[in-house]
Q: What sequence folds into this?
């Protein structure tokens, strides 16, 4: 199922967290992963190299995950990128804000590889449908 | 064994990173106290707790998540302007930070943290709800705490908080910082402020005893990849040079020894020389860390101490970028805490005393690091009352540490150094924050273990500076090679002041010991052969003027062979007294590196020998 060639960008200011996400992705068979420590760095990387998927934290210095998501959706080149938001907040207003900004998925810390797999699958399913349509 | 089987890597990563984060938060809290409305500070602190919470979730450290979550909520309301920072909320926040640190310590030991003190959680909740700030009740003596009635916290919340947890063990550890005004033993305040356990007082378990528990952490190191790349580059270059040398060897072995070949050999060898020393430097650099990582935890400690003593002290940091060997950073942590504690407690005057002296009420304590040549200088400088040599001498005599006669021979510098004597305590009352008479001697011992030296500079009324000098690294030790007969020995160059010839006519008996006068100072002559327990074969020709913090003396030797940067190899299972390790000379000879302090033994007063033993009778001439 997992396409090992898919290129992921993990965005989080906490390197321990980036490592956790990277390991979980590896467990699911995705090994092609790059990291960025905040939204600004992430945008730079997205604009200079091709990526297939963005996994981003919400709370970060310089540029937070929501702003990053909004910038991605505004950019003609990047707007189709799937973006999975990871946050420690399960608050309704946060989830709504993320959905309104165009997040492809929303996942609350802490989570397991199974949860991540499920979210990814859902996103791919949706993508497949919209591509087919 | 541990609650984190299979997660050790993740745990140690988390602890390093989250520890840095928490120190950053601590410092920002100190700043926040000075500018409580700073939105970006509030935001940063919020994010700190938020990030720690996120990481803790993956470690299943539920109690840490709960604590961070509450604190984060409080900061969320503060940063949104829904609440104002009051001194009471500050106290709660600082207590929460201390509790987070305590939980980190549990994690370090592989133990799942227990729930935070219910009273703390209730106070946090109270602060979030903006209830009138309640004075947190004094330390509960039994399991269930009795909060103050009246303006108390939300009872329901408190009840739920209390019933949810195994209270007795935890409640007894209420962080003392919660109630600065309450009558808590100052020692408890200091221990809480320093985040130490009452059991690891230095001096009780000895200066090294502590390590066994605290060494658990931090066997890993974060290195800039650029530095690792350089190591890789250099080892590649060395490989190439080795190939070149191999080729040249075959040429030479097959009989080619024309000038061109020899010249190429010369070039290759000097290239290798350069590359190896570059590689040594590059490898050393991977162990270097900015000292700022150590410094950043001190402003909070200084603040807590000063506050508990009713003083207004600002700790100013400088030179945080100075890089220093990682192992040294760890070993410097406690000595610097002691120096800061000493400065805040003794160095800096009370508010009234400062006002009387016409000084600003806020005092400045500087913690500074810089590199000077091949060593690192760390300075802790206060602008307090300065040290009084006369009082120090009187104190030392009263404590029976030195005799009246000894006291009268001490100059100012030596008098200052009396505070490094074990058992010396300047505080009149023993209950004082740093008046326990342990600490300063441990400070010096620890610095000396790092091959460093500590020096005191003081000006009455202006302040006192403690200046620590450290070598850049512990791996390479500059030594002076001295000879006894044909046998070379290495002594640490850091102790050597000068080398002088010993003329028999200059040697005089003072108090039955051979001495010589160097620029007005009478110094004992200690023959190296005597210290090693060797028979003396010939009259020593040279003296090496050596200086330790306690004494200066002339080490009498037969000759010397120059200086060398020794790469120390320790003798693991076999360690003769007075030998710090061995090194190999360029000619392949193995040389013992002497540990002068150990050779001299504890008491230096009785060392030395009469002139007649040093210089045998035939050499003695009756002159004049």
A:
């Amino acid at each position: 199922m997992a396409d090992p060639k898919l290129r992921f960008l993990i965005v989080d200011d906490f390197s321990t967290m980036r490592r956790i996400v990277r390991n979980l992705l590896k467990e699911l068979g995705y090994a092609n992963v790059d990291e960025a420590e905040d939204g600004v760095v992430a945008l730079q990387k997205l604009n200079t190299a091709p990526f297939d998927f963005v996994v981003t934290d919400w709370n970060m210095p310089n540029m937070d995950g929501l702003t990053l998501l909004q910038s991605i959706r505004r950019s003609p080149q990047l707007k189709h990128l799937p973006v999975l938001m990871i946050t420690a907040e399960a608050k309704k207003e946060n989830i709504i804000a993320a959905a309104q900004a165009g997040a492809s998925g929303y996942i609350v810390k802490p989570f397991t590889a199974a949860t991540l797999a499920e979210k990814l699958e859902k996103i791919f399913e949706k993508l497949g449908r919209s591509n087919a349509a | 064994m541990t609650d984190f089987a299979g997660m050790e890597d993740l745990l140690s990563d988390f602890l390093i990173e989250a520890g840095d984060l928490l120190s950053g938060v601590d410092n920002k809290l100190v700043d926040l106290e000075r500018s409580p409305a700073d939105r970006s500070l509030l935001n940063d602190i919020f994010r700190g707790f938020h990030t720690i919470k996120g990481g803790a979730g993956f470690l299943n450290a539920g109690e840490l998540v709960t604590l961070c979550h509450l604190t984060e909520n409080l900061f969320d309301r503060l940063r949104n302007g829904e609440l104002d920072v009051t001194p009471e909320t500050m106290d709660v926040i600082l207590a929460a930070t201390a509790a987070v640190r305590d939980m980190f310590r549990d994690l370090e030991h592989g133990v799942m943290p227990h729930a935070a003190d219910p009273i703390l959680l209730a106070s946090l909740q109270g602060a979030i709800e903006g209830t009138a700030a309640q004075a947190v009740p004094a330390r509960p003596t039994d399991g269930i705490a009795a909060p103050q009635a009246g303006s108390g916290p939300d009872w329901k919340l408190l009840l739920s908080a209390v019933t949810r947890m195994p209270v007795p063990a935890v409640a007894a550890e209420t962080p003392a910082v919660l109630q600065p005004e309450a009558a808590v033993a100052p020692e408890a305040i200091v221990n809480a402020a320093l985040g130490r356990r009452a059991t690891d007082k230095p001096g009780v378990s000895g200066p090294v005893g502590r390590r066994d528990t605290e060494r658990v952490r931090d066997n890993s190191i974060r290195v800039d990849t650029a530095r690792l790349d350089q190591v890789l580059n250099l080892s590649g270059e060395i490989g190439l040079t080795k190939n070149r040398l191999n080729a040249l060897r075959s040429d030479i072995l097959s009989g080619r020894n024309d000038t061109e070949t020899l010249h190429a050999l010369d070039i290759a060898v000097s290239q290798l020389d350069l590359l190896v020393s570059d590689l040594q430097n590059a490898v050393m650099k991977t162990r270097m860390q900015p000292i700022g990582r150590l410094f950043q935890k001190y402003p909070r400690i200084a603040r807590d101490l000063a506050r508990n003593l009713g003083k207004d002290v600002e700790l100013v940091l400088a030179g945080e970028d100075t890089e220093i060997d990682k192992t040294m950073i760890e070993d410097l942590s406690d000595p610097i805490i002691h120096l800061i504690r000493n400065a805040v407690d003794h160095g800096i005057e009370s508010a009234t005393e400062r006002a009387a002296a016409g000084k600003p009420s806020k005092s400045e304590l500087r913690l500074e690091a810089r590199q000077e040549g091949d060593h690192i200088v760390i300075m802790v400088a206060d602008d307090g009352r300065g040290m009084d040599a006369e009082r120090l001498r009187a104190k030392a005599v009263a404590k029976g540490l030195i005799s009246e006669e000894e006291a009268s021979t001490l100059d100012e510098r030596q008098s200052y150094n009396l505070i490094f004597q074990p058992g010396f305590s300047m505080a009149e009352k023993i209950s004082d924050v740093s008046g326990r008479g342990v600490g300063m001697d441990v400070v010096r011992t620890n610095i000396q273990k790092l091959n460093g030296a500590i020096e005191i500079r003081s000006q009455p009324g202006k302040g006192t500076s403690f200046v620590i000098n450290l070598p850049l690294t512990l791996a390479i030790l500059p030594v002076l090679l001295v000879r006894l007969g044909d046998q070379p020995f290495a002594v640490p160059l850091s102790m050597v002041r000068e080398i002088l010839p010993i003329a028999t006519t200059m040697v005089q008996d003072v108090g039955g010991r051979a001495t010589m006068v160097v620029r007005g100072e009478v110094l004992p002559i200690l023959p190296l052969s005597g210290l090693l327990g060797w028979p003396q074969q010939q009259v020593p020709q040279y003296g090496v003027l050596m200086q330790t913090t306690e004494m200066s003396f002339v080490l009498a030797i037969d000759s010397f062979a120059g200086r060398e940067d020794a790469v120390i190899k320790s003798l693991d299972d076999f360690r003769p007294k007075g030998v710090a390790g061995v090194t190999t000379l360029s000619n392949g000879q193995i040389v013992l590196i002497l540990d002068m302090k150990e050779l001299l033994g504890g008491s230096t007063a009785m060392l030395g020998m009469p002139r007649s033993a040093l210089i045998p009778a035939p050499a003695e001439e009756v002159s004049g």
Q: What stands out?
A: Chain A has a mean pLDDT of 87. Chain A touches chain B through 15 residues (CB under 8 Å). The two ends of chain A are 21 Å apart (CA to CA). The longest strand of chain A covers residues 53-57.
